[in-house]
Amino acid sequence: MSESTTSQSTRIVLASRPEGAPTADNFRVETAALPEVGDGQILLRVVYLSLDPYMRGRMSTAKSYAAHVELGDVMVGGTVGQVVESRCQGLEPGDYVLAGAGWQSHAVVDGSVVRALDPQAAPLSTALGVLGMPGFTAYSGLLKIGKPKEGETVVVAAATGPVGSAVGQIAKVRGARAVGIAGGPEKCRALLDEFGFDVALDHRDPQFADALAEAVPDGIDVYFENVGGAVQEAVWPLLNTYARIPVCGLVAQYNGVDLDRKDRLPGLFGSILTKSLTIRGFIQTEFVKEMYGDFLREVSAWVRDGRIKYREDIVDGLENAPEAFIGMLEGKNFGKMLVRVAPE
Amino acid sequence: MSESTTSQSTRIVLASRPEGAPTADNFRVETAALPEVGDGQILLRVVYLSLDPYMRGRMSTAKSYAAHVELGDVMVGGTVGQVVESRCQGLEPGDYVLAGAGWQSHAVVDGSVVRALDPQAAPLSTALGVLGMPGFTAYSGLLKIGKPKEGETVVVAAATGPVGSAVGQIAKVRGARAVGIAGGPEKCRALLDEFGFDVALDHRDPQFADALAEAVPDGIDVYFENVGGAVQEAVWPLLNTYARIPVCGLVAQYNGVDLDRKDRLPGLFGSILTKSLTIRGFIQTEFVKEMYGDFLREVSAWVRDGRIKYREDIVDGLENAPEAFIGMLEGKNFGKMLVRVAPE
Fold this sequence. Notes:
CATH superfamily of the largest domain in chain A: Medium-chain alcohol dehydrogenases, catalytic domain
CATH topology of the largest domain in chain A: Quinone Oxidoreductase, Chain A, domain 1
Number of helices of chain A: 10
Low-confidence stretches of chain A: 1-5
CATH class of the largest domain in chain A: Alpha Beta
Helix content of chain A: 25-40%
Oligomer: homodimer
Largest interface: A-B, 39 and 40 residues
Number of domains of chain A: 2
Strand content of chain A: 25-35%
Shape of chain A: globular
Structural class of chain A: alpha/beta
C-alpha cells in the first residue's frame, strides 16, 4: 500500500458485486487525488472507520432503503476523523468530528454534515458504537417499537454486537428480562458477566431451540430482530399475544437464503393474526429528530455510571477492512467492529 | 326440522372437523331441551344469526385467538334476539338484545353479557354488521393501525363485505383514496356506485396484478388485510415506505394453502426492513374499551347521513346456515351474511 499524503487519499472501492458472501475480490485499494477544499468544506484525516452489516446491502443493486454503491466508488461508512484543513466556520484544524467519509484515509466533506466530538466527554470510537448509530438503533427501536414493560421478556441475537448488547442492557434499565443469543461460549460468558443479561444462549448449540423455549417460561414479549434465519425461526412459536418485533437487520439472510424450503409466509401471517403481533421494520434515521437528543443524554449517562457497557473489536489498518468486514458477516467479531485507520 | 318451542332449542352443532373447505357433513341439526332460566339470566328467541369468516377457525383445533368449538357443541356466533323470559333486572320480555347465542333458535344466557338494542335507532340487523363487530373491526383497525392520512391510498379486498365496505368508506371520510377489490363485475359495480370507492378491481381478472399496479400510481399506504392469498401477493410490491398493514383476517388461507411454493418468508422480511413496514394483527376486542363508544357515535351518524352505506345478504331459516356459511367462505355472499332465524 502506498503512503497517503494530505493531497491524496488511500481508499477502498467496490471492485465487483458479491454473489452470496462477499470475498476479498469484491474490493480494491486505490490511491486518488483529493479535491480542493471548497467554501464550507473541511479536509479530514480518518481515524476510525465503522464496519456495519448494512454495508452488505449497499454492495448489491437489489432495492434497499439506501442507494447502492456504484462499481469503482468508495465503500460507504461512518467515520471519526480529525480536521486537517478547514474552510468551514466553527471547525478548526485539530477538531474531531463524526462524518460519513467512507472507507478511506482522507476525505473532503461539507462541514454542515459533520458533528463535532468532544474527546474528553467519551472515547472517540464510541461515536460509532454505543453512542452512535448502532446504539441509537437499539435505543430507538427498542423504546419506540419494542416498548418493553417491567417484567416482560426481551430476546435479542448478535447480542455481544453493538446493537444487541445495547438492546439487552436498555431492556434491563427498563426492568425487563433480557435473553441474549450469541455464537460460542466466550461470547455467551460475556453476555452474563460483562453485559448483565439474565440468560445467554449459544445459537450453535444443536439444542438451541429447546434451550430458548426453556429460557422463556413466560414467553417472549419483544423480539428485537437483527439477524433473521434460524434464530427467528426458534423465536416464532414462543411469542406472546401482543408481542412486538422491531426489525432492523437480517444479517443471516443478506448473503442468500435456502431456496428449497416450503413456503412459511402463510404460517407467519397466521401467527400475526392469532397472536395480534406487531412487526415493524425501521431504520434509525426515522427517529433521529424525535429521539436523538434523549438518546445521547440518557445513554451517555448510563455509560458513565456503568449501567451500559460496550465492547469494541478494533482492527488496525484500512487495508484490513475487507477481511474484517467479511468476518463480521460471519459473526467472527466480538463487539463493535472498527478499523483504526490512523492513530488518534 | 322439528318445530321448536320455548322449552326447546333447535340448534346446529359441529358434527366433525373439516379438512380443507367445510362441507354440509361437518354440521348437524339437533333439538335440545333448554335449561331453566336462572337468576340474572334471560331466555332469548334468536332473530338474526351472523355468519363470519372467523367461525372457520373455531371449527379446527389449530391454535387460534379463541377456543375451538368442541365436537357436538353448538356453533358459536353473534345473534340478535328478543327476550322471551327474564330473571335479569333491566331486561323485559319483548326487549331486543345483541348476544352471542350461536347457531340456535333459542338460548338461555346471562343478562350481563348482552347489550340492549333500540329497534327505532337503527335496523336490528345492523348490530351484527355495520354497527356491530364487522363495522368495529373496520373502524378500529383502520383508524388505530392503518391511520390513513388525507390523500393516501388505502387498499382493501372482500370490499363489498361488511368489513371491507366499511374500511373503504371510512377511508373516504378521512380524505384517503379507496381502492376496493371484489369478485366479479356485479360486486365491482357496487363498489363504485353504491359504496363510493375510487377504484374497483376484480380479483378474478387474469390481469389483476397489473390492474392493481396501474390503479395505485402513488403506491399503497394502507393495505387492510382481510383475505391473504393472491391479493396479498399483488399488493406486496406496491407498498410504500412506512406502509401500514392491519391484519384482521386471512380467509383465502383458512381452508388450506399451496404447500408446494418456495419459501416467501425471507422476501417478506426483506420488504419489512427495506420499506419500514408495519404489520399488525388484531382482533377488534382489543380496542373495545378504548374506541367502541366513538365507533357507535361516529358510524351511526355516518350511516344516518348516508356517508356510509351497507349491504346485507340475508338467508331465511336456521337450517340453511351451513350452506350459507360454506358459500360465504367462497365469496358467494354479497354483503353482510345473516341468517333470519325467526321474524322480528
